[in-house]
Write a sequence for this structure.
């Protein structure tokens, strides 16, 4: 669709504008035909954002051991055929996607549903079906869309996913509501139930919002983790021993906690450098202009227009990064160590005018702290408990695929895994 591409020098004057002027939710809803794809659920309230920004983030410390336990369980199933003697060749994307879906579900809906194959298939498949409907309608005339929509196979699949999600979540939601506050659970389902007001209390609406959060988290986190794993495999000789030393030393000193994970500066730096080189898309800071905006240079943005910023190119701009085409795993650790004032900047979850994959401002991704913790736990387990390598003579990571504005890691690449003797 037609968009106005803005320089990132305008981020700071746009980042705090209210939704009545510049809207992320309206942009997502309209760009992906929310009335047809169910994404209009995000327009009904801020509940899903508020719970991620507050309860999910505040409880991340207590979730870390739970996520670690669930990730070990998921990987032991995904890599069940390998041991200390035998290598297992596995599709990387499917392995990571299945593990991330299970761990995300543990934090979102708890046990035992997080290990239910039907739920995992629904949580993973919902995203693909939403974007399939959007893609099927995109090039159709707006007058024809309601009629074409009726006959889409993607519509039938999507509606079946939503119904499957409701059939599993609504009984849980009702049970949770009846138990309040006697048996509070520590998961997103519980926090949504406790925080819902008015129409948001309807179980079907809560169910649909949880499915949306699965869409927002599972595939994006999986793709980011796959990119990182490909980079780690390519640079394994130089980086894996360094990361393994940092991880084992910090865990030995402090145990596996959120605080100890946050001390792993080299691991954090590796994640951010991989994300810098392998952006989730060519564009970020996607918004719809609701009311007229005049930029500081006098240019006017008309209501109804859509804006974006070229985040992938910003991340490769020599004005922002020295030798931007070079993969420097410790780039951001060096920036943080440069001075006391920089120590808490340049983290994987940090946003800035030079780093926009998580957005910026009041609607920066509220789940990025959870996603970062989960990805780090995945890597901590793989680095300390497994060996991994590309098959055969392959030394370099596979190239990324580009579709419209999306940048995706290979979904066909295999890797070999073997357990490390403990």
């Amino acid at each position: 669709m037609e968009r106005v591409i803005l320089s990132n020098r305008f981020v700071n004057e746009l980042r705090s504008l209210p939704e009545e002027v510049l809207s992320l939710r309206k942009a997502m809803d309209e760009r992906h035909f929310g009335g047809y794809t169910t994404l209009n659920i995000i327009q009904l309230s801020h509940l899903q954002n508020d719970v991620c920004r507050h309860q999910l983030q505040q409880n991340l410390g207590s979730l870390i051991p739970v996520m670690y336990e669930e990730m070990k369980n998921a990987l032991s199933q995904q890599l069940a055929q390998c041991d200390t003697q035998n290598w297992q060749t596995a599709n990387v994307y499917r392995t990571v996607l299945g593990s991330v879906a299970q761990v995300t579900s543990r934090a979102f809906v708890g046990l035992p549903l997080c290990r239910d194959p039907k739920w995992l298939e629904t949580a993973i498949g919902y995203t693909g079906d939403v974007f399939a409907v959007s893609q099927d309608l995109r090039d159709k005339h707006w007058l024809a869309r309601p009629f074409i929509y009726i006959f889409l196979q993607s519509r039938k699949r999507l509606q079946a996913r939503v119904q499957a999600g409701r059939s599993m979540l609504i009984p849980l939601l009702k049970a949770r509501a009846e138990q309040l506050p006697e048996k509070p659970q520590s998961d997103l389902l519980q926090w949504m139930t406790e925080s819902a007001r008015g129409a948001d209390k309807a179980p079907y609406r809560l169910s649909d919002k949880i499915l949306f959060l699965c869409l927002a988290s599972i595939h994006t986190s999986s793709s980011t983790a796959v990119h990182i794993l490909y980079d780690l495999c390519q640079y394994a000789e130089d980086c894996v021993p360094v990361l393994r030393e940092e991880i084992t030393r910090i865990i030995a000193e402090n145990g596996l906690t959120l605080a100890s994970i946050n001390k792993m500066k080299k691991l954090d730096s590796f994640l951010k450098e991989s994300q810098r080189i392998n952006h989730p898309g060519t564009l970020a800071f996607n918004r719809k202009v609701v009311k007229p905006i005049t930029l500081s240079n006098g240019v006017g943005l008309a209501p109804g227009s859509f804006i974006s910023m070229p985040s992938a190119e910003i991340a490769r701009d020599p004005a922002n990064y020295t030798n931007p085409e070079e993969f420097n795993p410790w780039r951001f650790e060096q920036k943080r160590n440069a001075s006391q004032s920089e120590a808490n900047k340049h983290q994987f979850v940090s946003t800035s005018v030079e780093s926009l994959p998580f957005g910026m401002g009041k609607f920066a991704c509220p789940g990025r702290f959870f996603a970062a913790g989960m990805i780090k736990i995945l890597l901590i387990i793989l680095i300390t408990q497994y060996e991994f390598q590309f098959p055969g003579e392959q030394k370099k990571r596979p190239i990324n695929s580009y579709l419209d504005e999306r940048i995706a890691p290979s979904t066909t690449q295999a890797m070999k895994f073997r357990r490390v003797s403990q």
